[in-house]
C-alpha cells in the first residue's frame, strides 16, 4: 500500500505540471519535437522517414515555429539521430491523444521508476526512510521538470531500476526469472538511446557475475549471449538505416575530438553537480546525501562490517551497484552530450535515468545524518519545487527553460560557481575539492596502515604468550 500511495501521489503532483510550457508559446523544446515527429511518422506512415513530415509540416498543431531537422538523408531517407526505439514506445500514446498523451505516459513511467527506487532503497534502509527519501527526490525540481518532458531518459530509468532489482535478487535467490528478466530489461536500453549503454553495462556485469557466483553458469551464459545479440542487432539496424553503429551517425554534429574534446569537458563532471544554474545540488540540495552514502559505503567496507552483520553485505552490494550505475550515467551526460552543460532542458533532466538510483542512495544517507540536517535539506528541496510550480502556474515564470531565480537559496546562490563564465572560481573550487579528496584518502590510508600494524602486533603478542 505504501508503494501504491507513493505512485498515486507522484502521478497527481506530476499531472499538475502538465500545462507548464517549455518556453513562452512553446510546449516542447530541444529534442522533444523531434521525438514527437518520429512518433507521428510511425503512426501515419508506418516508417521512420521524416521527409514527408517536414514537407507537410506535420508538427504545426503542437509546434508553432518552423522545425529544422537535426538529421541527414541516408539511403534516400531523412533520418534523425534519436533512434527508433523511443519513437516506437510513445507511438501508441501519440496515436490515442497526441503529445499530451505522451506526456501522460512519461509521468506515469517516471512515477513507476521511483516506486522501483523505493524497492531498491528498502535493501539499504527500513521504512519509512526508504519511501520518504525516495519521495523527496521524486518531488525535487529536476524530477518535476522531467516528469512531463518527452525524453527517453524516463523509460530508461524504469529499465535500469528494474534490471538493478533483478541483479540484486539473483544474489539472494538465483532464479531464472530474475536472470532472464534482468537481461530482457537491459536488452531494451540501447534502443532508447546509445547513452544508456554505459550504465546498462554496469548492471549487466553485476547480473552475470552474481549469477556465476551462484553456480548458474548456463543461465549466465544465456543472459550474456542475449545481451550481446541485442547489441549486435542494434548495431546492424543502425548501420542500415543511420549509416553507422549508432543513430548519432545521422546527426549534424559529431562527437568531441578525441582526446582533447573530452579533456575539455572534464569540468562538466563538477558542473553537473555544482553549476549555479544547472547544478543538481543547486536545485536539489537533498542530493548531497548521495556523497554521504558513498562515504558510508567506504566506511562499511573499510571496517569490514559485513563480517559482523552478514546482512550488511547485501546493503554494500546494492549501494555499490547504484553508485556505479549513477556514476556511469552522469559521466556520459557530462562528457558525451551534444549540447552544452545547461542544454535545452531544465537542469537535471538530462540525467533523469540516474535519478531513481540517486534517490535510493539519498534514502540511505537520510537514515544516518542528524535529523536537523535531513530536515533542512528536505525543506530546501521541497521549497524550491513548491515555489517553481506556483510561479510557473501563476505566470510569474514563462516556462521551464525561462527559470532565472535564486530560489531556494537567495543571495547565497552566488556561492555556486558559474561553469559557463569566468574559469577562476570553478577551477579554484574543483582544485579545492580534489585536494580535499586527496587529503581524505591519505588520512584514511595512514589510519588503515596504523590499524594493520596494531593488529599484527596484537597477533604477535598472542603468539608469544
Notes on the protein architecture:
- By secondary structure, the protein is mainly alpha-helical.
- The protein has 20 helices and two strands.
- The protein has a two-stranded antiparallel sheet.
- The radius of gyration is 23 Å and the shape is globular.
- Keywords: Membrane, Transmembrane, Transmembrane helix.
SSE string, helix = H, strand = E?
HHHEEHHHHHHHHHHHHHHHHH
Mean pLDDT: 86
Helix count? 20
Mind summarizing the main beta sheet?
2 strands, antiparallel
Widest β-sheet, arrangement of strands: 1-2
By secondary-structure content and strand pairing, the structural class works out as: mainly alpha
| Unreliable parts | none
Q: C-alpha Rg, in Å?
A: 23 Å
Share of β-strand residues: under 5%
Shape category: globular
Which helices and strands occur, and which strands form pairs?
Elements: H1 2-15, H2 32-45, H3 51-55, E1 72-74, E2 77-79, H4 85-121, H5 129-138, H6 141-147, H7 153-172, H8 176-187, H9 189-192, H10 197-213, H11 217-241, H12 260-264, H13 267-274, H14 280-283, H15 289-302, H16 305-308, H17 311-336, H18 355-368, H19 371-393, H20 424-464
Antiparallel strand pairs: 1-2
Helix pairs in contact: 1-4, 2-4, 4-5, 4-7, 4-18, 5-18, 7-8, 7-10, 7-17, 8-10, 8-11, 10-11, 10-17, 13-17, 15-17, 15-18, 17-18
Amino acid at each position: 500500500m505504501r508503494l501504491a500511495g507513493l505512485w498515486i501521489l507522484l502521478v497527481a503532483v506530476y499531472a499538475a505540471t502538465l500545462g507548464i510550457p517549455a518556453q513562452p508559446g512553446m510546449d516542447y523544446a530541444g529534442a522533444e519535437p523531434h521525438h514527437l515527429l518520429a512518433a507521428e511518422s510511425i503512426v501515419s506512415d508506418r516508417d521512420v522517414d521524416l521527409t514527408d513530415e517536414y514537407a507537410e509540416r506535420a508538427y504545426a498543431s503542437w509546434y508553432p515555429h518552423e522545425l529544422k531537422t537535426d538529421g541527414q538523408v541516408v539511403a534516400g531517407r531523412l533520418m534523425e539521430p534519436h533512434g527508433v526505439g523511443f519513437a516506437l514506445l510513445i507511438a501508441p500514446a501519440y496515436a490515442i491523444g497526441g503529445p499530451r498523451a505522451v506526456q501522460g505516459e512519461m509521468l506515469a513511467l517516471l512515477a513507476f521508476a521511483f516506486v522501483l527506487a523505493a524497492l531498491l532503497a528498502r535493501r539499504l534502509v527500513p521504512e519509512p526512510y526508504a519511501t520518504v527519501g525516495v519521495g523527496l527526490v521524486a518531488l525535487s525540481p529536476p524530477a518535476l521538470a522531467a516528469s512531463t518532458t518527452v525524453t527517453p531518459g524516463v523509460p530508461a530509468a524504469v529499465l535500469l531500476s528494474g534490471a538493478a532489482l533483478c541483479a540484486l535478487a539473483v544474489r539472494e535467490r538465483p532464479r531464472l526469472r530474475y536472470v532472464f528478466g534482468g537481461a530482457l530489461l537491459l536488452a531494451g536500453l540501447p534502443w532508447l538511446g546509445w547513452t544508456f549503454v554505459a550504465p546498462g553495462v554496469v548492471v549487466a556485469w553485476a547480473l552475470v557475475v552474481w549469477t556465476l557466483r551462484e553456480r548458474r553458469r548456463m543461465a549466465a551464459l544465456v543472459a550474456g549471449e542475449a545481451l550481446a545479440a541485442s547489441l549486435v542487432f542494434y548495431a546492424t539496424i543502425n548501420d542500415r538505416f543511420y549509416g553507422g553503429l549508432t543513430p548519432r551517425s545521422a546527426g549534424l554534429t559529431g562527437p568531441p575530438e578525441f582526446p582533447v574534446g573530452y579533456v575539455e569537458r572534464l569540468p562538466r563532471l563538477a558542473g553537473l553537480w555544482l553549476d549555479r544554474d544547472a547544478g543538481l545540488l543547486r536545485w536539489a540540495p537533498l542530493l548531497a546525501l548521495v556523497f554521504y552514502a558513498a562515504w558510508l559505503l567506504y566506511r562499511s567496507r573499510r571496517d569490514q562490517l559485513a563480517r559482523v552483520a552478514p546482512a550488511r553485505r547485501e546493503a554494500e552490494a546494492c549501494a555499490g551497484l547504484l553508485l556505479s550505475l549513477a556514476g556511469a550515467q552522469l559521466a556520459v551526460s557530462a562528457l558525451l552530450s551534444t549540447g552544452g552543460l545547461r542544454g535545452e532542458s531544465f537542469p537535471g533532466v538530462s540525467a533523469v535515468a540516474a535519478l531513481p538510483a540517486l534517490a535510493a542512495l539519498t534514502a540511505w544517507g537520510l537514515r544516518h545524518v542528524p535529523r536537523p540536517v535531513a530536515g533542512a535539506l528536505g525543506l530546501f528541496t521541497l521549497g524550491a519545487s513548491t515555489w517553481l510550480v506556483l510561479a510557473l502556474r501563476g505566470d510569474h515564470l514563462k516556462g521551464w527553460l525561462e527559470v532565472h531565480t535564486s530560489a531556494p537559496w537567495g543571495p547565497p546562490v552566488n556561492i555556486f560557481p558559474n561553469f559557463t563564465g569566468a574559469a577562476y572560481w570553478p577551477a579554484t573550487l574543483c582544485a579545492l575539492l580534489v585536494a580535499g579528496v586527496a587529503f581524505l584518502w591519505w588520512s584514511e590510508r595512514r589510519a588503515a596502515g596504523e590499524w594493520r600494524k596494531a593488529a599484527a602486533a596484537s597477533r604477535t603478542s598472542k603468539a608469544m604468550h
